[in-house]
Amino acid sequence: MNPVVTGRALLDSRLGAVTMYRLVTIALAALAVISMLYSGIGSFGEGLFSIGGQISSLLVVLIVTVGSTWLLARAWKVRPHLESSVITALLLYFLFIPQTDVGMLGWLALAAVLASASKFVLAWRGRHVFNPAAAGAFLVYVVQSVLDIDPNNRIGASWWVASASLLPWVAIAALLVLYRTRRLDLGIVFVVPSLLLVMVALHDFGQGWGDAAQTAIQTSPFVFFAGFMLSEPLTLPPRRYQQMIVALVAAVVYAYPLAILVITDSPPLFGIGDQWQVAALLTGNLVAFGFARRSGVRLELIERRLHGTDTHELVFRSARKHHFQPGQYAELHLPHAGTDTRGSRRMFSISSPPSDSAMAFSLRVPEPTSSFKRAMVDLPVGAIVQSTGVSGDFVLPRDRTVPVVLVAGGIGVTPFLSQLRHAPDRDAVLVYGVPSGENIPFADELADFRVVLVSPTYPSRLPGAWTWVEAPFLSAARVEEAVPDLASRRAFVSGPPIMVNAVRAGLSKRCRSVRTDYFSGY
User: Fold this and answer.
1) Within a 10 A sphere around the Cβ of 125, how many other Cβ atoms?
2) Domain 297-391 class?
3) For the whole model, what pTM was predicted?
4) How many CB atoms lie within 10 A of CB 487?
5) Cα distance from N-terminal residue to C-terminal residue, the chain
């Protein structure tokens, strides 16, 4: 097997073992520990802060952010997502210089409260508009300015995480997060323009290009900004091209005042540059909000269906009209007892068409399974689940005459259900891989479509419009054999990362284009 595909499969399997939120929490916590270790050996933060300040500041932001979120959630009568609060606290830890002074810690606590409050007050229909950590940093700066606090007694965003010592660790952590969330392109679109703009400013100021690059990379939080703040899913618009525009706008706004900061040699801790970097993220959040005023939706379970032996389809009625395109996914929030390390939020492709009055999600529940999926299938009719919004670019061409081949591995068939139910007249061939011919979820729903079933054993049922290919797993070669006109079709591949990566590599040489949907950590 291709070593690149094998390496990606191994990485996907490891990252897929944790949710996106848990990965971000682990990455930020690891960076916090590393920063303290550097301080402990005297090679980091010397003369600026101490390890005592780091511990004090971290405890303050964690306790205040989580506590205020819990209290505000009770006031708003909603269930809080406390892991998200931990992430906000860790981000605040890296935004402000660690403190030991009680007064400064008080301001830091206020920033944490304001960050938590922004999730509820600066929100649109139950979904916050701004990155909470950035909102807290900006608002506490405004409060101190309005009260005319002595600059020596203020705290302000300093981005101390931007250092030569931490850069390699920040880069590794950010790359893992961006890779896990499939937003490496977002990071590139932000980092490259902003880095080049700052380098140009430094060069004009008299530095050589090499020194300009080194200074910019080691003293500006480009990578941290892109990996942990700009990439926050709840403040990004749903479509990829919209996200790229947001990243580009944020890059330009971010870099211009930083160049002014360097040229004028203003104090870095309270100068406009550090605060403007926060404002750049908030500007990007506003642009994202302008693209799509996404909101949270309350979903009421009205029906459950069993397909095969372990695949469940749950049908929900929403409190208000939901808007999505076939192939998109929604993030569901379901607090439940005995929550495991996978957390209480998961993303699921929508299996119903937009024309339905209800919204359906399909999930495979093997044994053993996660606590989230167990809680989902155990929900009684009438139970409420919160959806934080709809996103995704795994959508078919608007022109239904454009020929497509849909390659699904197991539960990866879910987005195709929505697409085929929405447009049954589309020129589409579904290549559907299942581990056993005895268990074929959604066989009845797909009976009238052109389907190539790939399984190691002969199916117990083969509808008239279907053909069967005997194989232990899906591959690009088998897809080519089953679909003679593959070269004229656009391919859409959905399923486990190991299957998607392997099939994508082969199909990219055999058809017009390939788009993928990863069921990572499902």
Assistant:
1) 11
2) mainly beta
3) 0.85
4) 11
5) 24
